[in-house]
């Protein structure tokens, strides 16, 4: 079949296998080039890495950088819809296939699991996979790095069997703001009604830190957590103009709980060589970001500014810098206390985005942008490209008029 992007209300509902595979290979090449021979001593680098939410975005980049940058054996877990003879799978389905194929070709040991990361059964299955992966790699069955990068819209709590759903809403009052429709490059007004107490609680349940704590507990109890294990979860803060819908909204409330969980994990780790961090990462285009009010407008202006300043980063560039300059710098690899953090013990990989000169230039662009100059004043074209690329479309070198089998990357 010939697969073209199917976009409904700024949501892409299909993906392209060859495009996804090509995008994964591009990230792999960047990781290999950027992390080869860097400063961390060999004994400080991770040998066995578990990535929860491994199939797209920061989670995929985290797995690629660990495997192809450091040569680590990796176990990845995500929940994806596979392809059929007549219908493509999710982008993450193809990304996982591509990662495992490339890993096998490079002599790296990898194991990818598909299922509900929130469930007790999947935690048990993952622990078994860690032991099998370690045996295949001939290394101790102890996870050196756990990356928590889940982005599920729902979670069934294993304690009570209740399914909770997350929402992207403001708290306390309605929100309405100008944003850009990336497909038409026109301004639209987008808004959201305030969340009620149950929606806030449910969002924290899904996107907060409780499950991160449960994973640490399960791995430790099973004896598969290294004595010097590190764990990192990802968050975003952003500029004040986005706080009504993000930092001060339901997502922000969940991210506050993620930071609470990081502190709780470190309290449990007290007196050991283990450590947990929350990493604040840069604004990027995700499968959901196109429909969050204000974000497409802000990100399109941000991309324009950062590209002009030659400091723009995508997922793999961000994670390579996280590993190279923070978690596994020469000093940080030897001692977690030497990993650079802010006053709240957060790693700041959003530091370039939040520079005063960058933020001033972005706000100036947003003020000067009219519907007539959107294509030149902003990088809406780059936003659209990244959105399509996340689904395997608009990837250089891929023939989108070729007949493909959706079940294969070939």
Instruction: Give the CATH level 1 class.
Output: Alpha Beta
Strand order of the largest sheet: 5-4-3-6-11-12-13
Percentage beta strand: 15-25%
- Give unreliable regions as ranges: none
Spatial separation of the terminal alpha carbons: 13 Å
Structure description:
41% of the residues lie in helices and 16% in strands. It has 410 residues and is of the alpha/beta class. The protein has one domain (7-389): Rossmann fold. The chain has a seven-stranded parallel sheet, sandwiched between helices. Strand 11, helix 7 and strand 12 form a beta-alpha-beta unit. The longest helix is centred in the middle third of the chain and has 20 residues, at 250-269. 47% of the residues are buried. The mean pLDDT is 95.
Please tag this protein with its features.
410 residues; alpha/beta; Rossmann fold; two-stranded antiparallel sheet; 13 helices; 41% helix; 16% strand
What's a quick, concise take on this entry?
The chain has a single domain, classed as 3-Layer(aba) Sandwich (Rossmann fold). It has helices at 17-35, 57-70, 91-105, 120-137, 197-207, 210-221, 250-269, 295-308, 315-327, 330-334, 356-368, 374-377, 380-389, and strands spanning 7-8, 11-12, 48-52, 73-78, 110-114, 143-148, 154-156, 163-165, 175-181, 186-192, 225-235, 275-280, 347-348. The strands form four sheets. The chain has a seven-stranded parallel beta sheet with strand order 5-4-3-6-11-12-13, sandwiched between helices. Strands 1-2 form a two-stranded antiparallel ribbon.
């Amino acid at each position: 079949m010939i697969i073209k992007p199917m976009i409904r209300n700024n949501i892409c509902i299909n993906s392209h296998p060859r495009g996804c595979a090509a995008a994964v290979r591009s990230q792999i090449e960047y990781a290999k080039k950027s992390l080869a021979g860097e400063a961390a001593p060999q004994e400080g680098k991770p040998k066995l890495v578990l990535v929860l939410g491994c199939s797209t975005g920061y989670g995929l980049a985290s797995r690629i950088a660990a495997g192809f940058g450091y040569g680590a054996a990796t176990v990845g877990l995500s929940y994806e819809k596979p392809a059929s003879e007549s219908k493509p799978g999710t982008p993450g389905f193809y990304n996982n296939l591509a990662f495992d194929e490339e890993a096998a070709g490079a002599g790296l040991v990898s194991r990818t699991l598909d299922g509900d990361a929130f469930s007790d059964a999947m935690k048990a299955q993952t622990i078994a996979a860690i032991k099998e992966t370690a045996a295949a790699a001939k290394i101790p069955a102890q996870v050196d790095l756990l990356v928590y990068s889940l982005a599920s819209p729902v979670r069934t709590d294993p304690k009570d069997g209740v399914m909770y759903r997350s929402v992207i809403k403001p708290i306390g009052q309605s929100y309405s703001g100008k944003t850009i429709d990336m497909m038409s490059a026109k301004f639209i007004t987008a808004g959201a009604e305030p969340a009620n107490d149950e929606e806030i609680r449910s969002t924290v349940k899904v996107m907060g830190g409780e499950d991160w704590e449960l994973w640490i507990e399960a791995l430790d109890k099973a004896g598969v957590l290294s004595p010097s294990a590190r764990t990192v979860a990802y968050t975003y803060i952003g500029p004040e103009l986005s706080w009504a819908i993000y930092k001060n909204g339901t997502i922000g409330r969940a991210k506050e709980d993620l930071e609470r969980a990081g502190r709780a994990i470190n309290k449990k780790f007290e007196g050991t060589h283990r450590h947990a961090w929350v990493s604040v990462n840069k604004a990027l285009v995700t499968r959901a970001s196109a429909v969050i009010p204000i974000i497409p407008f802000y990100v399109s202006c941000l991309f324009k500014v950062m590209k002009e300043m030659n400091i723009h980063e995508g997922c793999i560039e961000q994670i390579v810098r996280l590993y190279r300059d923070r978690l596994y710098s020469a000093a940080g690899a030897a001692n977690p206390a030497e990993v650079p953090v802010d006053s709240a013990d957060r790693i700041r990989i959003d530091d370039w985005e939040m520079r005063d000169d960058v933020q001033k230039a972005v706000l100036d662009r947003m003020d000067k942008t009219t519907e007539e100059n959107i294509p030149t004043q902003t990088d809406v074209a780059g936003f659209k490209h990244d959105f399509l690329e996340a689904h395997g479309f608009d990837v250089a070198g891929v023939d989108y008029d070729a007949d493909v089998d959706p079940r294969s990357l070939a």
